[in-house]
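INTERNAL AUDIT FORM
Audit reference: QA-55
Scope: verify that the stored structure record matches its stored sequence.
Auditor: D.O.
Record contents follow.
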Amino acid sequence: MGYRDRLARTLLDESWAYGYTLTIWGAGAFLIAEFGVPTHLDVLGYVTGSLVGFAALTWYGFGGFLVRVERDSRDVRSAVEMVHLFATFCNLLGALAAIRLVDAFPVPEPVVFSAVGCWATVGYSLLLLVEEYVGERWIDGDATQSEGNDGGKK
């Protein structure tokens, strides 16, 4: 396997986690910018919110917690699907909007941190689904157009 193939495999394997990492760090940075250095309770709230969000997605996605999990290899139709610009930026804008909205109400900071942590996790995963759906429709639509224009040949 050549170096480009190895790089491509690495990018494919890491792309979901990379976008999620940017989202979690970015949302945390927004919280710090808004509220200053977080207390221990704020950090626990943020992490707890993220864990609750991930647990909820896991329960819904797999139909429970104590079920067997089998993972197929990831199928990516185009490299652009791996960048996750939409999921990352839209989620960060959502986190910032939530911080600004909650700032208008007398809500304890640990609750805000928890809500933003949960949003960052759930929002990113749901926006990935939107990205994947749009990517598939765009690529499938492109393929359908090509087939229609040249008699079904690609």
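Auditor finding: record pair retrieved intact. Residues 40-64+80-140 form one domain.
Action required: none
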